[in-house]
Amino acid sequence: MKNLWIRYTALIKSKLAPSSDKEVTGVRFWQDQLFVTFLVYCLPVSLIALLPCVYIAIQAKFFLIAFVDLFVFTFLLGITFTGKLTLPRKKVAAIAIFYLLSVVLINSLGYMGPGVIYLLFLTILISLVLPIRFGYWSVIVNTVMLAVFALIIKFNLFNTVLSAVYSPASWLAFSSNLVFASFVLVTLIHRIFERLQVAILKKDQLQHRYKSIFDKSPLPMWIFDTETLAFLEVNQAAVIHYGYTEEEFKAMTIRDIRPAEWVPATEQVVDLNKKSGIYYEGTSQHIKKDGSYIYVKIESNLLELDNNKTRLVLATDITDQVEHQFEAFDTHKKVKESEANLRAVFDSTVDGFVLLDSKFNIKLFNGRATELIRLNDGKQEFETGRSIFDFVQPARLPYFRAVIAKVSNGELVDYDRRYRTVNGDLSWIRYTLTPVYNGATVDGISLSGRDITVRKRYLKTVEDQNKTFREISWMQSHLVRAPLARIMGLIPLLVASTDKQDQADIVNYIDISATELDEVVRQISNKSNDIINKYPAISAARPSADQAPKMEM
């Protein structure tokens, strides 16, 4: 039965020729739909009144009524299933045939018959399916028609049952109630349609506004079906940005703009959001028509569109941001590696370093700073954030402040300081204070300390050796030369002398000179040995950490 009704409805709608208007919108659209519904239900429902009325009319020998009833039904059947009449003409034809029916019934049965009911029905039908001005005209037509019947009754223009039952006054009294009811109903329908038209207009304006927002949005937007994942609507920004035409988009699904490896995750997200209906925000990778890959920020919400669950998507291209983030990450990684390398160099250097800020507070120091930067008598542990002056011995504070002031003015200052360890040995530290610039402004100070004890000892050794070498050189040029010269002078005399006594004296003098020369050579040898014994090979070893050095002013 249901399938039969569906086929019947489809048949009627297929026979409805389109309106002559190019575009029917608003209340007109709903009036046309209402008339179509009237035609669909009119024929089967009219049988409820037609069959008993025809039967009773024939039994009562009202053949005219039976004929008119059958004629009206046949006429309605014809205009319903014909495809040659437009919808407005079908409306006029249906109204005209019902007016004929009402006139015949009023004339035959009087005011209490169904004819008057049909007049009221026609006023309502005209007001519902035609512009409201025709509803008011129908009230006028009904009034004129009822007035004509009053004249027929008064002057008995032709044979009618009305003349036998009603007087003109009673007929007009009954008719005025019908006119009143018709006018009230038309007015109410008029007001309803006015409000309906305003509501439809507002709805259309709202739809147009949101459609314009959707179409004119500078960001790509689309609507897709959560079941098939097919694109339903796309805006111009999406067409321009992705390179696909609107028709190409609507022939695709959201899978087609994603890399294959992203599709399972996308389907899972859509399925979860379809069930939860919550707002979604995330990032994805899309493929444009030219094959290029882009990163996008996705924002979407669930929509009910034509009884289907869809999602409205806003896609923001963040490719440049992501690339910048990758570049920033790589740069940050390189900076971290550079900082780690610099820190390793900073911590492993043989010098002690302390970095001060513009207010002379400690910003940074390495592990050798405690050992090699000795600003007071005790062993000191530097702390970041504290002033460097907190670690300076009070007696040395004025001198240190003066040095800091010079460096703050852009000078580079270095000086040596001597310390004595607990075992009495001397150690030396060279301090170097360097200004740290930020542009052209001194923004801090670098303080370094280096153990130069070995260098000092080496220099002292060189100085002592040079002094000894000068003494040896003097001895060689003065003390060695005198006995050697005498020996060299006596040897020729010894060779030339024939007197034994003279030879013995010469040999004695040679012996005295040789002994003197031997003494001088021994002294030179002793001085050389003294240098070797006094200054052996210098070790690079420094004083141990547990030797508490003391400053020697």
UniProtKB/TrEMBL annotation:
The chain crosses the membrane at residues 38-58, 64-85, 92-109, 115-132, 139-157, 169-193. The keyword Membrane applies. It comes from the Bacteria. Keywords: Membrane, Transmembrane, Transmembrane helix. SMART domains: PAC (SM00086), PAS (SM00091). Residues 208-275, 340-409 form the PAS domain. This is PAS domain S-box protein. It comes from Mucilaginibacter antarcticus.
